[in-house]
């Protein structure tokens, strides 16, 4: 038995172990097979007309099986292996048009069963899905960063009078203005950067656990760590800008 599954694609798959398989044919004929094992491997591209599992038989059994299976249930699979499959899309489209013309296919419902299964189609779909997910993630990330900074900004502005009063007292007891500004900058860095430091661990752990099924856990964790560090540097700049534009004018 051949199961064309990718066990690392993140989905659950089931196999059906069989000791013996009997196939009914024309005129109540039967043919029995003893299963010698099962293989979970992708040997050719998937197609909606193909079954979920396949039986691999030798040439002699295949000829006997052809004799008892009705002609209407028999089909032929033609496989092409391109040297550079990533640039084979024009050839695939030409072959598709040729088959549609020869089989006189003129509606989309029949095309489902006569369509060509190509890896380039899956790759294009995956790339489009990946680009959409990347853009969506970046938009959500920017929205969360903006919301975080707005909340922190106004929480600081609400307490500006108390902050000003505290620094005035420190100034009168001898603390220099540059030390006050440095202290305020350190406080703003702690406030604005603490969420980013906390998110490093969440992003790395989550990215690793999700992508380890595809053997990309380390690369995903590294990318998440780099992206989080960029956000932290941006938060440093925001804290510095907030200190210069707002605190210096008040103190």
In short:
The protein has helices spanning 59-68, 89-102, 108-114, 119-158, 160-172, 177-211, 217-250, and strands at residues 2-3, 20-24, 30-34, 39-40, 53-54. It is mainly alpha-helical and 251 residues long.
How much of the sequence is in beta strands? 5-15%
| Helix-strand topology string | EEEEEHHHHHHH
- In total, the number of strands is 5
- Mean pLDDT reading: 79
- SS field, number of helical segments: 7
Largest sheet: number of strands, sense, barrel closure: 3 strands, mixed
**Estimated radius of gyration:** 32 Å
As laid out across the biggest beta sheet, the strand order is 4-1-5
Draw up the topology in text.
Elements: E1 2-3, E2 20-24, E3 30-34, E4 39-40, E5 53-54, H1 59-68, H2 89-102, H3 108-114, H4 119-158, H5 160-172, H6 177-211, H7 217-250
Parallel strand pairs: 1-4
Antiparallel strand pairs: 1-5, 2-3
Describe this structure in words.
The protein is mostly helical and 251 residues long. The chain is elongated. It contains seven helices and five strands. Helix 6 (177-211) runs antiparallel to helix 7 (217-250).
